[in-house]
Write a structure and sequence with these properties.
- The protein contains 8 helices and 6 strands; from the N terminus they run βααααβαβαβαββα.
- By secondary structure, the protein is α/β, with parallel strands linked by helices.
- It is globular.
Length: 210
């Protein structure tokens, strides 16, 4: 098993409900598709921010009921939390979550699909600055006592890849039908289309940027 720490960005899957949720959030805030949701909220007068946050939380609460696990999720995290057969005393890799969601959708996903997997820390959008700023990754690496260059950032968006790249982490893109522009992007080290593809890659020793 490769000696990396794995940082997982929280996904809402399947893809269609996730994209619909972003559209619904922007509709609730009356902003266009090019406007960053969190940047817009933090640009509002302080008196208007609580209502805006609640508007997107309401969308997230509905969307989380449609969550299904990404293909290969169980296989990957079973592998990550088990010691390798060649070294049964090897400690499990540290696992963390960095997300722009609030906590309830993350908790819902973990309770329903990864109830025995320990993630620490879990940073939501309450941690500022949020992705694509690399601060969250650097903070988590510090919590783990590892160099950010020994962290693998797994995600499916430009925010994920940019944050990982700027932190110096290796980046793995979970490729799908709407992020094709990132498959060959300078921020992306590796593309997989299923999470369990990472098992063989980690077993052989993942190498990111030099």
């Amino acid at each position: 098993m490769s000696d990396h720490a794995v940082l997982y960005t929280h996904h809402q899957a399947p893809l269609a409900p996730s994209m619909l949720a972003f559209t619904q959030m922007r509709d609730a805030l009356s902003i266009d598709a090019k406007t960053d949701i969190l940047e817009h909220i933090y640009s509002l007068p302080p008196s208007e921010q609580p209502a805006a946050h609640e508007a997107i939380r309401a969308v997230e609460r509905s969307a989380m009921l449609l969550q299904t696990p990404q293909p290969g999720l169980q296989t990957l995290f079973t592998y990550l939390t088990a010691p390798p057969p060649s070294n049964p005393h090897h400690p499990p890799l540290p696992l963390g979550i960095l997300t722009r969601n609030h906590l309830p959708p993350v908790t819902h996903l973990l309770n329903n699909h990864l109830p025995t997997t320990a993630f620490h820390p879990i940073l939501t959008r309450d941690f500022l600055p949020a992705k694509p700023d690399p601060a969250g990754i650097i903070h988590i690496a510090g919590q783990w006592g590892v160099d950010p260059r020994d962290v693998i950032m797994v995600g499916d968006s430009m925010d994920d890849m940019r944050a990982g790249y700027m932190a110096g982490a290796a980046t793995v893109l979970l490729g799908n039908s709407v992020n094709g522009e990132l498959w060959e992007h300078e921020y992306t080290d590796l593309v997989v289309t299923r999470l369990d593809e990472l098992v063989g890659i980690l077993e052989e020793g993942f190498v990111g940027r030099g």
